[in-house]
Amino acid sequence: MLRAYPAADVRAAEEPLLAAGAPLMATAARAVELAVVHALRERTGGVAGGRVVVLVGAGNNGGDGLYAAAGLARRGVGVHVLTTSEHPQAGGLAALRGGTARLVPLAQAWPAQALRAVADAVGPADVVVDAVAGTGVTGGLRGVAATVVAATREAVEAAPRPPVVVAVDVPSGIGVDDGALPGDVLPADVTVTMGVAKPGLLLPPATVCAGRVEVVDLGLDLTRRTPAAARLTDADVADLWPVPHREDHKYSRGVLGVVAGSDRYPGAAVLATSAAAPLAGMVRYVGPDGAARHVLDARPEVVVGSGRVQAWVVGPGVGDDDTARLRDVRRALAEGLGTVPVVVDAGALLALPERVAPTAVLTPHAGELARLLSAWGRSTSRADVEADPVGAARRAVSFTGATVLLKGATTLVVGPSEEGVAGSSDGTGTVYAQADGTDWLATAGAGDVLAGVLGALLAGRSADVMAHPPLAARLAAAAALVHGRAARAASAGGPLVALDVARAVPGVVATLLAPPLRTGPGGRMPG
User: Fold this and answer.
1) Which helix (H) or strand (E) covers residue 431, if one does?
2) Residue-averaged pLDDT of the chain
3) FRET partner for 67 with CA separation of 20 to 30 A, picked from 183, 253, 297, 442?
4) Strands annotated E in 171-302
5) DSSP character for 437?
6) CA pair distance 38, 50, nearest whole angstrom
7) Mean pLDDT, residues 364-371 taken together
8) Are 255 and 284 contacting, i.e. CB atoms less than 8 angstroms apart?
9) How confident is the model at residue 523, as a pLDDT?
10) End-to-end Cα separation, the chain, in angstroms
11) In angstroms, rounded to a whole number, what is the distance separating the alpha carbons of residues 275 and 513?
12) CA pair distance 457, 477, nearest whole angstrom
C-alpha cells in the first residue's frame, strides 16, 4: 500500500534523523539525479551530452535540485540552473562552483530577461527538474516563482518534443495536504518524493500533475501516525479478496441481491449482474419480468426473485420517478441496512434514511454527490465537488455515517474513522485514492459494473465487514482497483463499452491472485 502523510508529520519524523546527522539532502539529491539519468537514457540513449534545466527555489527543495544539478554536470550533462530566489540553499550553491553547470539567477534579471532565459533553456531541453518549492508552500506559488513556473509550463507545452518533467518531492505549488490546485503548477511526468508520499500526490485534482510517483526511503518512523491518504496495490487486493476453499459452496461464498434497472432501462441490471456473477457464489435479481428476461439472457445462472443474501446492490439504473422500482429499493434498504453490507448507487441514493452504518457504501459520481449534499441542506454544485472532491466526500460521510466511494478519474473512498484511531477533525478516516483505470472508462454503464464488482466482494466478506465495519472502505478501494484494471485490459489502449469491462473482471482477479514468480539462485526459476 502506498501511504501518504501530511507535511507536518513528515517534518516531525525527519527531525530526529537530522539531529543525528543523517545525510537526508544528499540521499534525496542522489535519487533525483538518478531519476534524471534514467529519463535521459530513455529519451536519448545516453547521459553525457543530454540537456537538463533545473528550476531552483529557496530552502531544502531547492538544495536537493542544486546538488542533483552538480552531480549531473559531473556526468557530462549540459545543465542550466535557473534560480527563482535571491538566496538559494548555500551548500547546494557551493556544490555547483567549479563545475560546468550554468547558473542563471532569474530573480536578478527580472522580468523580461528572466522569461526569455526560461524559454531559451526549456525549449531544447531533454529534462526539466522542478525544485522550486516543496512541502513548505501553502496557498500556491507567488511572485517570481509563480511566473517562472507558468512560463516553464508554456515552454514545455510549446516545445516540438516536450522535455520530461521531474518534480522534486511534489510538483511546486500543489496543495500538499489536500490535493488542491490553487495556482500555477508544472505537471510532472515523474515525482521523486522524499521519505513517504504526500497526500497531494494521490488526491485529485493535484494527482494529475504528479505523474509516476517514486518514493525515496529516508528511514522515517511514521508508525504512530495515521496516513491522510492511501492507494491500494495489487498485493493488497490479493490479501483482501475472498478465495473459495474446497469445502465452500455457493451460499458460503456469498449471495448478492441486486435491485437494478427496469423495463425501461434494463441495461444497468444486465451490467451489474454480469460483473457480479463470476465473483459471487450466487446472484439474486429482484426486478420486473422484462428486465429479468434480459438478465437471464446474459447470465442464465442468475436467480430471479428475493431470498436470503449476504449483501445488496441497490439503485443502478433506477430513475427518481420510477415509483415501483423505488419501492423495491426501499424494501431492500429496510432489509439490508445494518444487517448486511449494502451498495447504494444512483436512484437509491436519495432514498437513504438520515443515518446509516459504515457497512452502507454510497457510490455517487460528482453530480449525484452534489445533489445529495444539496438535499441535506448544503447547497453544492457539481463544480464544487470537482474542485474539492475530498472535502465533498468527507462531508457526505459526516452527514450519513456511511462509507462513500466517489467515482471519478481518481476514485476516492472515505469512511468514518476507526474507534481509537486518530482521523480527520470531521470524524472521517483515511482517504483511499485509486487511479487504476483508463480515460476510455468514461462511458455509460461503467458505474453499474463497479457496483456489481463491489457488491460481490462485500458479499464474500460479509461477516468480516459486519464484525469490523471500517473494512468496507478498504474493500471498496479494492473493487475500484479491479474495476480500473479490467477497463485497461478491455481497452488495450482503445475504446470500450461497459460490458467489455465486466467480461474482463475475472481475468484481472485471476492475475491479481496468481502467486508471484520466484527465482532461484542466479536468477533461475526453481524447477
Assistant:
1) strand 431-434
2) 93
3) 183
4) 190-194, 212-216, 229-231, 255-259, 282-285
5) S
6) 11
7) 96
8) yes
9) 41
10) 31
11) 18
12) 11
